[in-house]
Specification:
Helix content is 42%, strand content 14%. The chain has 346 residues and is α/β, with parallel strands linked by helices. It has a single domain (2-219, 293-337), classed as Luciferase-like domain (TIM Barrel, Alpha-Beta Barrel), CATH 3.20.20.
Length: 346
């Protein structure tokens, strides 16, 4: 199983660079960044800096979306970072939750998400792409290529919860991003993506499944206090699913929908904030289920369970405090328990 860390963009550039180097030495495989440019600092300039101070770890947004940058601008960024890193660059794509909503816009649809993914892959590979311009209300199509593109194959991961997005992730992506560490739910979601992939005639071997969640090594009372924000963040996606599909458990399991009963709204100004005031509805059971908490031995046990159901990458949302200690704890007490292959350059 691969291991990763994710920054949200609130740690100083100097400290971010140092943690990236620490993670690489520790044996982590990926460094991801939230891409929500209003709430936090631009992630791509920070990635460029960190790429120059690492040799092996891969980078990418977890996740970006099709609706905040002209697609030619996005592709130019990805191609340049792929070139700069020697191919150590992936992208995770979602519909655009915080990044869009904080601007007063709705998330994009799944079809656009997939269209964006293919366009990014082709442009980074140096191919020509026809796409819809969105600048200055110009909806005309234009055909472009990046003549300087590195010709790398850009791996695409899709973040998904709903049935249409899970189907798209299985059919069109290299990997699936699930913001959860609940083994039952991870299997319920990933089985749908894998079934869609198989039905499309694509090889399921090599398809990647990421479980992304916060962790805390240590006392459970402190662990819950530091990670209570995470189920509230996931609750935004669950609320979208309930609005679209209902909460009877036919399309979305009641195990996932029941916990948002007491949800009274969400303040995006405090997205992924452990001190936010919209966390009261989250129970301890949900915190324990969604994250990975407790002693190092408990972390190993839960991660082994995730690995057994097909998770290929565990991604630590490294934004709960004591970040350097968490990386060190994993380096010494967790990673040695897993047979791992170092991430390779595409």
């Amino acid at each position: 199983m691969e291991f990763a860390i994710t920054f949200k963009g609130d740690i100083s550039p100097q400290r971010t660079k140092a943690i990236c180097r620490q993670a690489e030495v520790a044996g982590f495989d990926y460094v991801w960044f939230f891409d929500s440019h209003i709430l936090w600092r631009d992630c791509y300039t920070t990635m460029a800096m960190c790429i120059e101070h690492t040799d092996r770890v891969r980078f990418g947004p977890c996740v970006t979306n099709p609706g905040v940058r002209d697609w030619s601008v996005a592709a130019s960024i990805y191609a340049n970072l792929s070139l700069q890193s020697g191919g150590r660059f992936d992208i995770g794509i979602g519909r655009g939750d915080s990044s869009r909503r904080v601007l007063g816009s709705k998330p994009m649809n799944v079809d656009t998400m997939v269209e964006f993914g293919y366009a990014m892959q082709k442009l980074v590979a140096g191919e020509r792409v026809k796409y819809r311009k969105e600048i200055a209300n110009d909806s005309d199509e234009i055909e472009i290529d990046l003549p300087w593109a590195p010709g790398h194959r850009l791996p695409i991961w899709y973040a998904a919860y709903g049935p249409k997005a899970l189907t798209a992730a299985g059919q069109h992506g290299d990997g699936l991003i699930l913001q959860l560490a609940d083994p039952w739910l991870i299997k319920w979601f990933s089985d749908q993506a894998l079934a869609a992939r198989k039905a499309a005639g694509k090889d399921v071997n090599g398809y990647k499944i990421m479980a992304a969640a916060p962790v805390w090594v240590g006392d459970m009372t402190k662990a819950r206090a530091q990670t209570r924000w995470f189920p509230a963040m996931v609750g935004n996606h669950v609320a979208d699913l309930v609005e679209k599909y209902g909460k009877e458990g036919h399309t979305v399991p009641k195990r996932l929908t029941d916990y948002i009963e007491g949800r009274k709204g969400y303040d995006y100004r405090h997205h992924a904030d452990k001190d936010a005031d919209h966390l009261d509805f989250i129970s301890d059971d949900i915190i324990d289920s969604f994250g990975v908490l407790g002693s190092a031995e408990e972390h190993v046990r839960k991660l082994k369970e995730l690995e057994a159901i097909g998770v290929t990458q565990f991604n630590i949302y490294l934004m709960c405090g004591e970040e350097e200690r968490i990386v060190a704890e994993y380096a010494e007490h967790v990673l040695p328990h897993f047979q791992r292959q170092t991430a390779t350059v595409a």
